[in-house]
UniProtKB/TrEMBL annotation:
<protein>
    <recommendedName>
        <fullName>Beta-xylanase</fullName>
        <ecNumber>3.2.1.8</ecNumber>
    </recommendedName>
</protein>
<feature type="domain" description="GH10">
    <location>
        <begin position="1"/>
        <end position="329"/>
    </location>
</feature>
<keyword id="KW-0119">Carbohydrate metabolism</keyword>
<keyword id="KW-0732">Signal</keyword>
<keyword id="KW-0326">Glycosidase</keyword>
<keyword id="KW-0378">Hydrolase</keyword>
<keyword id="KW-0624">Polysaccharide degradation</keyword>
<dbReference type="InterPro" id="IPR001000">
    <property type="entry name" value="GH10_dom"/>
</dbReference>
<comment type="similarity">
    <text>Belongs to the glycosyl hydrolase 10 (cellulase F) family.</text>
</comment>
<dbReference type="Pfam" id="PF00331">
    <property type="entry name" value="Glyco_hydro_10"/>
</dbReference>
<dbReference type="InterPro" id="IPR044846">
    <property type="entry name" value="GH10"/>
</dbReference>
<dbReference type="InterPro" id="IPR017853">
    <property type="entry name" value="GH"/>
</dbReference>
């Protein structure tokens, strides 16, 4: 198999989300990372609750290790994530009585956190997911814009997004700053992201890109992806695919399996071929493609009764048939 980073070198860096245990050359994961990937993202250890679980006490060890691994092996680092309603410590949102903090206190704490984290990795983390998943996820009419159950929104209103970008830019003016979200390709959500990013740009807020998480599936619509990329292109921002994975099931209630089979392989080859053809077609716009994991042994999608098999590498980190399908596709460009 041709290393992925060789295969895609004329198009975009290719990344993986990793744990600190995986980012170690003494493991098969570390070896696969070094061979195939040119970018890494911390799956969890750069999130607010990992870096500052206790107010004022930063725990850098795991994140530092990932950054060192990337530097030692010539890889880029995407930072994930600075501002999110989930995986954030309670003190960022609530006082000792469980009441939401005032806008002033919340913003001061956010500024402190973002400044500390971005400054520490200045020059090492080249792109940050500054705000994660701020838009409302599911309303069939597509009218509720912001995720109103986010404590950030409740404390500050939508301008917490603006502030987060300003703080991050101050701490590292050279870092590329992204808004990152999922389900972004759907007609009922993409216009919300478009409008929000347009608002930021119109207000002179330093935002450089949109992260499409890419938690897609074997039914994902090609035209939904293309339409979204065409729309976002008009914002004059970069696009990164930040969390790509394609589980093998047609629907949420399809019975599970613990073995990969030829039906899964067939579906997954078709889906990944479609996806990578689109990404190659838009490679002038797309500046990073990152999988949300390395091989099928470790993925947030697995359940005890059902494995998802979402990647190009199997549980032993061997390239799957879908890997060779993607390789053929790139070679035929
Ligand atoms: O750290 C604790 C550990 O101490 C404890 O023993 C263990 C028992 O369950 O849980 C550990 O925390 C887990 C954490 O991952 C670290 O492994 C959490 O329960 C678990 O919920 C958490 O899941 C992560 C999830 O984000 C949380 O929202 C997934 O690993 C991670 O892949 C996932 O990533 C998110 C992106 O950040 C944003 N986009 C969606 C994506 C998938 O959900």
């Amino acid at each position: 198999a041709i290393p992925l980073k060789e295969l895609f070198k004329d198009y975009f860096p290719i990344g993986a989300a990793v744990t600190p245990q995986q980012a170690n050359l003494g493991t098969p994961h570390g070896q696969a990372l070094r061979e195939h990937f040119s970018s890494i993202t911390a799956e969890n250890v750069m999130k607010p609750d990992a870096l500052q679980r206790v107010k004022g006490q930063y725990t850098w060890g795991n994140a530092d290790q990932l950054v060192k691994f990337a530097k030692d092996n010539g890889m880029l680092v995407r930072g994930h994530c600075l501002t999110w309603h989930a995986q954030s410590p309670d003190w960022m949102f609530y006082d000792e009585n469980g009441e939401l903090l005032s806008k002033e206190v919340a913003l001061a704490q956010l500024e402190e956190h973002i400044t500390a984290v971005v400054s520490r990795y200045k020059g090492d983390v080249y792109a940050w997911d500054v705000v994660n998943e701020a838009m409302f996820d599911w309303d069939p009419e597509g009218v509720i814009e912001y995720r109103e159950d986010s404590p950030w929104y409740q404390m500050i209103g939508e301008t917490y997004i603006d502030s987060a970008f300003v703080y991050a830019h101050r701490a590292d003016p050279d870092a590329k700053l992204f808004y990152n979200d999922y389900n972004s390709i759907f007609s009922w959500k993409r216009h919300k992201i478009y409008n929000m990013v347009k608002r930021l740009k119109d207000n002179g807020i330093p935002i450089h890109g949109i992260g499409l998480q890419g938690h897609w599936n074997v039914n994902t619509s090609e035209s939904d992806i293309r339409t979204t990329l065409d729309l976002f292109r008009t914002l004059d921002v970069e696009i990164q695919i930040t969390e790509l994975d394609v589980p093998v099931y047609l629907s949420g209630d399809e019975p599970g399996a613990v073995e990969y089979n030829s039906t899964f392989s067939f579906r997954q080859k078709a889906a990944y071929s479609m996806i990578f053809q689109v990404l190659l077609d838009y490679s002038d716009l797309i500046t990073n493609v990152t999988f949300w994991g390395i091989g099928d042994d470790h993925t947030w999608l697995d359940r005890p009764d059902r494995k998802a098999f979402p990647f190009l590498f199997d549980e032993d980190l061997k390239p799957k048939p879908v890997y060779f399908e993607v390789q053929k596709l790139v070679q035929n460009q």
